[in-house]
Amino acid sequence: MATEPYPALVVPAVGKHSATIIFVHGLGDTGHGWKAAAETLGRDPSLQHIKWVLPHAHSRPVTVSNGKEIPAWFDICLNALKGSEEPHEHVKVTPSGDLQKVACNGFEDREGILQSMQILKDIIMREIGSGLGADRIVLGGFSQGGALSLLTGLTTEHKLGGVIALSALLHLQKELKDVSSE
Description:
Elements: E1 8-11, E2 19-24, H1 35-42, E3 50-55, E4 59-61, E5 69-71, H2 78-82, E6 88-93, E7 99-104, H3 110-129, E8 137-142, H4 144-155, E9 162-166, H5 176-181
Parallel strand pairs: 2-3, 2-8, 8-9
Antiparallel strand pairs: 1-3, 4-5, 6-7
Helix pairs in contact: 3-4
């Protein structure tokens, strides 16, 4: 488990905290992009027991964005989004402003995905460590965050209360069993 908490916006429960939703943003966003939704839902009397944890991805170069550094949980190649393994090239802008061709083989950024999954697992463990049952934790996200939440929810050792994946796909499908044991 990580020694320091990962950067996240926390929207406390309005009432007595007895459940947590960890909601993961999509490509180019931050947890702040979901704060208003968490606060709005938190005002509903039936949801006032929920604490929201909205983690922020670090900025990294993203292939599908021509190598531009943006908040991202992992790198994305356009062909991977299409489910294709056919090789193609992207044009990337280097830090000096030059254009550079980058080969893409329909890859999935396995290393980046696994690192980000560990972040979510660490957040889950912190919630469990605070005394909350795993069945009182829901993991969710939008787009890239939804994909990460779906994969983490399917492979975590804990039986979570639920998983929400909005506008998302399942990465690392061919090695799902291997990922669950890592």
